Amino acid sequence: MRLAGYFQDRMVLQRNKENHIWGWDDSGSVTITIEGERYTGACVDGRFNIVTKPMDTRVGIDITVEGSEKIILHDCCFGDVFMLAGQSNMELPVSRTLDVSADIVSRADYPYIRQFRLIPDNDYKEIGEYKLTADPWTAAVPGEIDSMSALGFFTFRHIYEKTGVPVGLILSAQGGSTIEAWMRREDLEDLSDELGLIEENWGEGYLPAKVAAQYEEGERWKDKNRIFDAAEYASGIPSDAKEVQIPGMFRDLTGCSWFYKEFTLTEDVKSPDAFLYLGELVDTDVTYINGVEVGTTGYLYPPRKYPFASSVLHKGKNLIAVRLITERNCGGFVPEHRYYIEVDGRRIDLRGAWKTIRESTSEENKSVRMMVMYPTVLYNGAINTLKGLSVKAFFWYQGESNCFGAETYNEKFIRMVMSWREIFGFDVPVVATIMPDYINPESEDVSFVPPEWKNMQHLQSQASSLVPGCYLVDGSDLGEPYELHPQRKVELGDRAAIVFSEVLGLNG
To answer: Right CATH number for 78-201+374-503 from 3.40.50.1110, 3.30.540.10, 3.40.50.300, 3.50.50.60?
Structure first.
């Protein structure tokens, strides 16, 4: 017997609505027992789908499923279930916001705010062949909260505090996803010229293998640009290195470069631990201190936070060496971020004069079209696979990947919501987010937010007038300079909680 991935220990089902519980078994029938109530359904072609009656709020109950074997799902709840969809700013985990939210997170202990991380089955195949992965449910408690959606947690902690009703978050957001990926094919027929990609990449496993091969080619590109002996160049500043000011972005940097910064410690180090913060680098770095690797990040977005053993430090001069691989024309150390080393409770500012030397010059690395940028894949793998579940509301935060060529975005949004409501109910509200201002640090002119970005914000602001039962959260002023993933999710969550309170009738 196998249950669909959603149905696990600690799951949350929507209260006061029917719910389907489904899976696969080779027995003739399956029985589900919930608090003494038994539901039996037949297995047809090895699959069962059993409807349970509406139940009010419950916590800590067991659900038993019996067929060819017996499965007991422990510590389950009936509460309010919210789908979190969109791209990386919805997906961004709590751990990526700790620079501004550590105090709140350190005190968080909400065992009945739980999250199911839906990893979509991204592929092109027959609709009945898509499966829900079985990633475990997590809770907003110490040791688990770091992986939760930051926006989801910071929003629904307020709702839980008001109601005491368990909260189930279905996190299906995917970084980089386009709105077309969240739509069904028939709704794109007159709005997209890319539907040929479906036939071109049809067949189970074909698209994942194709994209994986492109990523492997990108890694080979990086390897070709590593020419110098890392042990030698991480341990000392070459005599022909040139001075540069950091932070800063540099043109004609495609390929690999080394950046160096010396700093002095006037005393022996006492604490066993130290910490290096290198803001945001474009694109890939391997970072060394006194010839010892202390951290590496394979792409441009995450802030470089590198804890390390202070034994690599010593009294006197110390050397930071950053091997930076830049995939496009422009790269470097993004301005408006912090750059420091912390040891023995003291921070040493690393901004200012550094030295650099080119390791290699190259043509640009080929960009990879991620699977979540292909039309319909997320509708098939992350929406339709949930058919039968009941949800309280949708929470949508997407638009960054559609800024260019956004002429039909709002029509696509209308159709997308309608298709979701055909699955989950026409009375399900949707809360949409207006994304914050952003300036790409690689831009030729960084003095203004690009008009394409402003246009998308304008389109997003119209959502509530286009879709019945749609509400807006305005995050346009909560950006940070050059930061695609601003950490101010606490403030955004505070605003979203006010909107959701209206949606749920909790105000007044």
So the answer is: 3.40.50.1110
